[in-house]
Amino acid sequence: MYPPSAAVFDKTLTCKVYMKAWIDKTAWISRRAKQILPNLSRFDIQSIAVIKHAALGDLLLTRPFLLALRRHFPDAKLTLSIVSHYGLGAPTDLVDRVHIASGKNQLQEGLWKRVKSFRALGPHDLIFDLTCNARSFWITLLNKAKLKVGFIPRGLHKCSHHIFYDLAVPRSEYKFEAETFLDQLHALGIMPTWPLEFSLPRLKTPSAHSYVLYFVSASTPYKCWPKEKFSSLLRKMASHYPTLRHLVLPGVKAWERELAAQVVREAGPPVELLNGCRPEESWAWVQNARLLVANDTGIRNYAIACGTPTVGVFVATLPFRYLPRFGKHLAVFNPDGGAPKTEEAMQAAASLLSPSTFEKTPDH
What we know:
By secondary structure, the chain is of the alpha/beta class. Helices cover 30% and strands 16% of the residues. The protein folds into two domains: 159 residues, Glycogen Phosphorylase B (Rossmann fold); 143 residues, Glycogen Phosphorylase B (Rossmann fold, 3-Layer(aba) Sandwich), CATH 3.40.50. A seven-stranded mixed β-sheet has the order 1-7-6-5-2-3-4, sandwiched between helices. A six-stranded parallel β-sheet has the order 10-9-8-11-12-13, with helices on both faces. The protein is elongated, with a radius of gyration of 22 Å.
């Protein structure tokens, strides 16, 4: 278990606190990094860039990483690199600058403008690449740093960390994604707080009555639990918990809104559809729910980040990557890959709503 708070050293008590690579044989370090680290003090670090090009869920999960950096390198300015076609959920409140790299919605701009946007990240003392794809490789390569840290790539790029990074660690798909990001900090001896800290602003509840929130869609249809199972769950939950409101939050795409409407129609009253809910209003609904039941989705990551208990239903993706080992969170999935039964999701929801076990995780 991590210590209750990250190890923080008062720089007034020591002149220099030098850095070290805390790695084993599964990681990789360059000869250059071995020479630099013993002579590099963490209080000399003035500028850090973090590259994370991803959608809502993964952007939210960078918050513990950024908070740990801020605590460990108190004098450093933080830059977050995001991509132009994703921005919702970016933790801009935790950084000093946002760099926007040319993405899929700017392909028509031509190669030179895209390269120019990559180079705009600029030089830094440290660069952390949490993305590890072709675009982030180029950004890392085109910008100078005293030390560049990333993941050991897989597939066609599996040896490219020798080119792009000074220090690279393995990337796990079998633990909570926010903890996977932190492995890059662990390689430098940096410890986060535990449970993980997200520091999301508190939002006023939009409902006078307690409620359970359901999100029935996902980024793509194949990740969705069948609508008839969601409808069945809603009917059972509404019957078993009549004092709670049962609300379905629709997604932003047309097919997601139609799916949500179909599930509500099949479930029948008293299940309600939160129609016309703007994105900024959605956060308040998620944050103040007694429970969120959802597929593999960024909405569930937001709930995890703000301490709302969740039941995640998985039919296509690895559940372990989206299942934190803190807070009140359960994953429902079949080991054979089939769609979980309604009763299994009902049992998971009931265990989290039980008065003897329910206690909302505090916002750290």
